[in-house]
Amino acid sequence: MENKTVTSTYAAILVLTIIALSVIKYFNISYPISVSTSQVSRELSVVGEGKVEVIPDTAVVEVGVTVNNIDTARQTQNQLTQTNNQIISALTKIGVAKKDIKTTNISIYPNYSYDGAVSDIIGYNGNATLSVTVKNVSKASEVVDVATQNGANEVRGPNFTLNKPEKYREEARNKAIDNAKEQAEKLAKNLGIRLGKIVNIVESSPISSQDYYYPRAAAEGMGGGGPTYEPGSQTITSTVTLYFEKK
Predict the structure, then answer these.
(1) In the chain, count of helices (H) and strands (E)?
(2) What is the dihedral of CA 173, 175, 177, 178, to 10 degrees?
(3) The whole model's pTM is what?
(4) Any residues with CB less than 8 A from the CB of 144 and at least 6 apart, and which?
(5) Which domains does the chain have, with CATH numbers?
(6) For 75-104, what is each residue's pLDDT tens digit?
């Protein structure tokens, strides 16, 4: 009797299952199936940093000419051009190449006089700017002196920079990679694991920081009356992340 009851129960369950599957198939009912897996990380990532400190080898000086209340726009342009040419000629005589002198701005604009609602042009103002790249930073002071002696009445700089920064960025990057490898080997030893090959490398953008220069007054009796300029030093920093296989 008991066997018959069990058999009937199994039969009922089977029938209900078949009916349920048939309904799902007939009405195209979808049901979620999730499969979860867990995997221990097979990579070890290490961050390394490299720094290179260099002395800037290039100076950039901007020298400007400003004129005011010139009678006509043409006269304003002529005066700016004449003074600019005089500055350029003087700079080339002290060894600055023409290709390192660039005109970056020329502006001419009217000067107005206002009488109530009426405005009259009473003259013209103008300015011109030359950007001078000095390959020998020790000549930056001389460039400023010569430019002002030949008509420049505005000076910005010198700003010190590197002629070929890529060379030093690569050096900083190589130091960062070596630093990351060294740290990875120490870490692997402490963890009791073996390192495999490098599977990925990510570099952050190189950062450059510069110590500011200060004008230094030339000593009396040393043949110079103007200040000299100290380029200071520039630090290029590279940060890399290396990803190693773990064995």
Answers:
(1) 4, 10
(2) 170
(3) 0.63
(4) 61, 63, 155, 158, 226
(5) 43-55+165-246 (3.30.110.170), 58-161 (3.30.70.2970)
(6) 999 999 999 999 999 999 999 999 999 999
